[in-house]
Amino acid sequence: MTRTSHPPVIIASETLERLERLAEAAMARNPDLADRLLTELSRAKVLPLERLPEDVAAIGSSVTFRDETMGRDQTVVLTWPEDADIAQGRASVLTPIGVALIGLKAGAQFSWDTRAGETREMTILSVSRADPVTPAA
């Protein structure tokens, strides 16, 4: 699976500022991850929440994706860092997989660098939002 470009990113305007603040705050602790998040945000199309398509991964979305490299499917709910609990499938937007998934639509294919430094090929199989996305303070 080769990519010539990155899949489009769409972010709700109600969450953009908080995502930018999280990335800036993480710059000292994890500059590579923070830089990746800021890069994704800088190329994002920003829409009001009510216009965000249902199949775009946002805070609160349940995202099922396939690790094409390992041949394994996984589902996570994207959360703010304080709500994350990977044992319960709640992945922080401030983790490598959270940064990779935020703003992508179902069907998107992308490369993802794991914490161990491995590059994996991924496909988003489905995205659903049970609750409205709210910008936490």
From TrEMBL:
Gene3D superfamilies: 1.10.286.20, Transcription elongation factor, GreA/GreB, C-terminal domain (3.10.50.30)
Keyword set, alphabetical order: Kinase, Transferase
Record domain Transcription elongation factor GreA/GreB C-terminal: where: 53-128
Keyword Ion transport: no
GO biological process: DNA-templated transcription elongation; regulation of DNA-templated transcription elongation
InterPro entries tied to this protein: GreA/GreB_C_sf, Rnk_N, Tscrpt_elong_fac_GreA/B_C, Tscrpt_elong_fac_GreA/B_fam
Domain Regulator of nucleoside diphosphate kinase N-terminal: 7-46
Gene Ontology molecular function, alphabetical: DNA binding; kinase activity; RNA polymerase binding
Keyword Lipoprotein: no
NCBIfam families: PRK05753.1 (NF004396)
Protein name per UniProt: Nucleoside diphosphate kinase regulator
